[in-house]
Structure formats: C-alpha cells, structure tokens
Amino acid sequence: MKVRIGMAPTTLPAGKEGADLFWRTMDLCDSLDFDSVWLSDRPVGPRISMEPMVGMAAVAGRYPKLKFGTSVLILSIRQPVLLAKELATFDYLSGGRIFPAIGLGQDDPREYEAMGTRKEDRGRRVDEAIPLLRRLWTEDNVTHHGEFYTLNDVTVEPKPLQKPCIPLWIGGRSKAAQRRIGRLGDGWLCSSATAAEMEEGITVINSTAGEAGRSVPEDHMGANIGFRIDASKEAGVENAAPFAIRLRPDADFASYAALGTAEDVVSTLRDYVAAGVTKFVLRPMCHPEEMEDQLRRAGEDVIPAFHSDRAGTKITA
C-alpha cells in the first residue's frame, strides 16, 4: 500500500515577508517530492494563515503536480451550495487534485457567531451538509428540505472531475467523529493522535461503517503530525515544546509528534503505518524562519525512506 506525505505550513509572519515565505515553501514542496499541501481553515483569530480555498487555488495554478487538502475545512460555518460550487470548480480546473478534509470547527463560540451560526448546531449542520454536497456533485435538479438548508430544483456545474465525486475526509479524534466517518465519510484525517489511538480509531470507523452497510477505503486513513528534525530526540522535544501550546492538554505532545533525528522521524512514521495510517500531513514545529530548513530536511531525509523497498511502501506524486 502506498504511503503519501504532504505538508502544512506553520503560522506565517505578517506582511510581504510572510507571503514570500509561503511561496518559497511551496517551491520546496514541489521540488522535494511532497505529495500535497494542506491549509487550515481559521476565518477569525490572530494567527496568520491562508484562507484555504483562495490559497489552494493560487498554488494549484503554479504547481501542476501537487495535490491539495484542507486540514480541516469547517463545514459547519460554510453554506453547502456555495462550497459545492467552489470545490467542484477547483477540482475541474486542477485536473482532480482536491482532497478536502472537513470538520465541525473549534471550541471557541466566537468563531461561529462571527460566521452567523451557532456552535451547538455544528454537528447537525455537518451531518446534513455532507450528503447534500454529494448530491450536488452527482445529480441535477436537487431538491432538499432539511433542518438548516432548503434547495428547490438546484443544479451545480461544473461537476467534479473525480468520480463519482470528490472524496470527503473527516477530521476529529473523538469517538463521535470516528463514528461520523464510518457513517458518512470517505476517509479520516486526525490531528495530535498517537499511533495506538489511530489504530483504535480505525477499528471504530470500520465497525461503524460495517453497521451502516458501507466501507471506508483502508488507504484513506491519515494523520496530521507535528515534526521537528534535530540533532537528537531530546533536542527535538526541547525545541518543539514552545509550539505545542495549542495542542491537546491531556497527553505529552512527544507521544503524538515525530521528533529527533531524521531516523527518529522515519521510525515514528513507520509506527503509524503499522497502525494503519497511509497518509501524512507533516507540520513543522518551529519558528517561521526555520520552516524552510525543516521542510528541506524532511524532503531530503524522511520522504526518500518511504520510496525504498525496505519500508514496504512507495510514495507517488
């Protein structure tokens, strides 16, 4: 089974310096055989990050081989008809290179208020929107009368190039998220989870999917993992610690990050592969000025390990 490794950029500095850094990192990803670029969805807040639909579209026009994903797109605050149109247009123009992962959103209620929705509705909104997106991508003249969305004889064109439609991966570490994937998702992209937790989650997903009379492809299990390549495991943990503040408070971040020498990082990723993970989104745990070096080292010293027969896997662009 093929392993694919993509990347997600760290927080960017303000102004032209941040834009220049973004493009330099995209140049690196394209030249170093990263499979894909993943952008987060943070519509409000002090962190500088790309709006994912705009950022992915800009990069897609410049790099013809990279794939693109969202990590994760907050479906609960987005209007599904407009989103269906945006994603289908992206897929159509890029030659089928969009792989969105979707989620409920952050815990801060201010984000939902700013976008005109309520946090307490987010789960039901997502459950209604997922099948609606698929209908808009595969059917004409869609009529839908739901709790949150009403459509009468609506058609979205162009249709996506990917058939039967764009795969919808779902994020989340909770059992509720895993069961939602089993019922509705085409894949899983989980952040800040240990290899053991990924293995347990895959079991829940497959069990729930079986109960629903469906299946989730075994090569659609992904992990969003922070990484830092350093002189030693100890140095990697120490230097990555300042960038683990926003991560989960209930576990040591070193248990779900890939830290240390390049060999340590490769070993950690192989633990995840053994647990059933075949897709990786690597996030540099570093200052913006270190991001290029970290990505270069990952591209030169980590990704090639998964090309070899010894790893039992192969990366494809």
Strand % is 15-25%
Oligomer: single chain
What order do the SSEs take from the amino end to the carboxyl end, as H and E? EHEHEHEHHEEEHEHEHEHEH
Number of strand segments: 11
Overall 3D shape: globular
Helical percentage:
25-40%
What is the mean pLDDT?
A: 94
Most strands sheet: 9 strands, parallel
The radius of gyration computed from the alpha-carbon positions, rounded to a whole number of angstroms, is 19 Å
Low-confidence runs: 309-317
Overall SS class: alpha/beta
Distance between the termini: 14 Å
In short:
This protein is α/β, with parallel strands linked by helices. Helix content is 40%, strand content 18%. Strands 1, 2, 3, 4, 7, 8, 9, 10 and 11 form a 9-stranded parallel beta sheet that branches. The chain has a two-stranded antiparallel sheet with strand order 5-6.
Could you characterize the architecture of this molecule?
Strands 1, 2, 3, 4, 7, 8, 9, 10 and 11 form a 9-stranded parallel β-sheet that branches. This protein has helices spanning 15-31, 52-62, 80-94, 109-114, 122-138, 175-184, 195-211, 233-240, 262-275, 291-301, and strands at 4-7, 36-39, 67-74, 98-103, 142-145, 150-154, 169-171, 187-191, 221-229, 258-260, 279-284. With 317 residues, the protein is an alpha/beta fold. Helix 2 packs parallel to helix 3 and helix 7 (195-211) packs parallel to helix 9. The chain starts with a strand and ends in a 16-residue tail after the last helix. The longest helix is centred in the N-terminal third of the chain and has 17 residues, at 15-31. Helix 3 links the parallel strand 3 and strand 4. The chain is globular.
